[in-house]
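Lecture 7 notes: from sequence to structure.
We start with the chain below.
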Amino acid sequence: EVQLVESGGGLVQAGGSLRLSCAASGITFDDYALGWFRQAPGKDREAVSCFSKRTGTIYYADSLKGRFTISSDIAKKTVYLQMDSLRPEDTAVYYCTAEVTIGECPPADYRPKGAEFDYWGQGTQVTVSK
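Predicted structure tokens for the same chain:
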């Protein structure tokens, strides 16, 4: 069974940085996608970014471009989310997710809601103070 384990969340001051990690296990396919979503209190879940060998890196929120960077270690089936210049509005639970059916990330202009992905991690809290 596929399992996703996130780490790296925490409390940081505005302008600071955090690096989230997501280690995937149980993925037996060569083609898969690993992505990040976030959900702030009282708000809908928001797609952040995604990586797959087929589609490369995709960012879904214009406000995050230039501040968030997704990267991966394919051999370790691990994806990272480097978050710089953090703002209080970035406060949310960040979830790692995996797509193993077709092994591709949804297109950037598709704005995925989450149903496109097959597995989810437990989430890690990121809190940005003013």
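Points to note: The radius of gyration is 14 Å. The mean pLDDT is 94.
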